[in-house]
Amino acid sequence: MSQMEKRFPTKINMRTGKVDMTHGSGGRAMAQLIEELFVKHFDNELLAQGNDQAVFNAPKGRMVMSVDGHVVSPLFFPGGDIGSLSVHGTINDVAMSGAKPLYLSAGFILEEGFALADLERIVISMAKAAKEAGVPIVTGDTKVVERGNGDGVFITTTGIGIVPEGLDISGSNAQAGDVILISGHIGDHGVAIMSSRENLSFETQIISDSAALHGLVADMVAAVPNIHTLRDPTRGGLAATLNEIAYQARVGMKLFEENIPLRGEVDAACEFLGLDPLYVANEGKLVAICPPDKAKKLLSVMRAHSLGRDAAIIGEVVKDDMGFVTMETGFGGTRIVDWLAGEQLPRIC
Amino acid sequence: MKYVDEFRNKDIAKKLAKEIANEADASRQYNLMEFCGGHTHAIFRYGVQDLMPDNVHFVHGPGCPVCVLPIPRIDNAIELAEQGAIVCTYGDMMRVPASKKNSLIKAKAAGSDIRMVYSTQDVLKIAQDNPNREVVFFAIGFETTTPPTAVAIKIAAAKELKNFSVFCNHVLTPAAIQHILQSPEVRELGEVHIDGFYGPSHVSSIIGSAPYDYFANEFQKPVVIAGFEPLDVMQSTLMLIRQINEGRFEVENEYTRVVTPNGNEKAQAIVSEVFELRRSFEWRGLGDVPYSALKIKSEFSEFDAERRFVVSKSTGKDVKGCECPAILRGVKKPTDCKLFGTICTPDNPMGSCMVSSEGSCAAYWSYGRFRLDMAKDKSLEAAQ
């Protein structure tokens, strides 16, 4: 190790330092950043080997792979940051197949001038999220772009996992008669992000629901192996997710607005921003679709898990060639819940 | 949510629905125009139509602020941005189609500095943060959004902000309603039957209920000022039906928790300090409507983008086949338009009514009323 210490005679100044072009150059500065920041915090054997790839034994069975890019603004928000989000997001995408996530990779695109203190804070947050989830970040990449060509930091994570035997979970499996469940309150993440946007900044107690859901999924598939569909309603919210599934499975859906868990604060924030909570993003919720005779059992398993405490049955899958998602409103009428068009923009009058 | 949930109560809605069904005369039709997009939105979002008898029809009016802005004004805003100004506007405006398939959001993508803001205070901050750039607020909206623009101009004057100006497109509600009632389709041709009006809620909180007295009398149509919650719409429907049945044409106020006869006099005072009437203003759908919009008074001319910059006279026209003008007048329904749902959808709007959630076409499309109706027709056909 004495040789290594000579290689980097002084430590990177994480307190006041900034990302510069050399940190992505492939030279010594990059090696030092990797060692003193990423390897140090992500702290696992595979990464510490120092290769350009992680080598591990492949488990038997069906494997899952998923990738997710993260460009959230602001980088730090109530209840999380881009780091924890990039870990949870990919773990969840892997887990929605019923799989047990095994490993993550992380690609960083850094903007010249980005504060190393912020980068370290993000990396520590990622490390903590990965450790809590039990899914190590085993390989990674760092690139730097000139000032003005990025927005601080973008993070892309890839995850791989293995599906327990006997599971067949897919959007296309939803069928008429199935029951639709959600694991908790909708819209928390989107509203938390909005509340911390520079030009909005309203005061709220709402924090992002960002969380890794594979533990909840493991309990669910153990109890009800024939769950038909799992999906996390992220961008576009619950509405987009259900429309995707309806299209994939060529079925319709019928929701009951009164049964959809929604916090009063989120409802109020959506009200004054002119947003519909059905379209607001979540980062720690899942939608499950299962045969009707299993719905009660699934609900009780979900409620027994800390991330599913507020789970609810919110609707049913119906036969409908046109793939409509309809909702009985709390007011007693019916409306269609369509795909999100454009970005959800606030009303002005 | 306090003060809101009470007005979305299902049980009260059921009771009201029953009363409406009882009082509506089955031998006649009730065509009720909601002027405001806010009402249109509430009707669709909560499925209010489902609770109405078949002979009560909602006619959607022109009260969607982004819908009524004619294409040349949007062209002008884009032109200002292309000249190098930072153009700020409210979110709904970003996707409204301009000439040549352009829009503010497309101009932004092409490199213009166009920013979405939530309030006029954001614009002042942008102006202060960018002292070497011209910052133009593309101001739109009815009487509700006018006072904040007036306040911003006054603040800019007090702070001697040299780089802030307003491209004023504020319009006035009573003039537009009057124009609709005077249109040949309503008065002579009888193409549009309007039996009564839901008066605006937010607009009325500023201007009060008194300004509607004139045309209730003149045109002998009842007006009920209605809140934007679904129960407000239902209660107002009942009040309108009662007036129609009794042959009355009065201005009644359902939204008493906010609207007073004289409105917000403080806001009115600030508006009249900064703005004056335009002789005429072009509305999409209605054409030139006399004294229907505001311009900045000469005392504040340095903050008037129209005097500060040279903008060309755009002759931009609506896309061929787009029925927004007729839809805004209540002459046609969104589904009467050939473009509706074919090439014109909220993802790719051809006309302004497809953009804002307050626009009739967007409400029709997004809340899918027409699709449910289509499905119903289909199943009826199958049954026969």
Word description of this protein:
- The complex is a heterodimer of chains A (349) and B (384).
- Chain A is of the alpha+beta class and 349 residues long.
- Chain A has 2 domains: 2-163, PurM-like, N-terminal domain (60s Ribosomal Protein L30, Chain: A), CATH 3.30.1330.10; 171-336, Phosphoribosyl-aminoimidazole Synthetase, Chain A, domain 2 (Alpha-Beta Complex), CATH 3.90.650.
- Helices cover 31% and strands 21% of the residues of chain A.
- Chain A has helices spanning 2-7, 28-42, 45-48, 82-95, 116-133, 188-196, 214-223, 237-249, 264-273, 295-304; strands at residues 62-70, 76-77, 80-81, 100-111, 137-145, 153-163, 179-182, 229-231, 252-256, 287-290, 312-318, 325-328, 334-336.
- In chain A, helix 2 packs parallel to helix 5 (116-133) and helix 4 packs parallel to helix 5.
- Residues 345-349 of chain A have low confidence and may be disordered.
- Chain B is an alpha/beta fold.
- In chain B, strands 2-1-7-8-9 form a 5-stranded parallel sheet, with helices on both faces. Chain B has a 4-stranded parallel sheet with strand order 4-3-5-6, with helices on both faces. Chain B has a two-stranded antiparallel sheet with strand order 10-13.
- In chain B, helix 1 runs parallel beside helix 11 (230-246) and helix 6 packs across helix 12.
- Chain B is globular and about 70 Å long.
- The relative contact order of chain B is 0.16.
- The chains are: A alpha+beta (349), B alpha/beta (384).
- At the A-B interface, helix 9 and strand 13 of A face helix 1, helix 2, helix 15 and helix 16 of B.
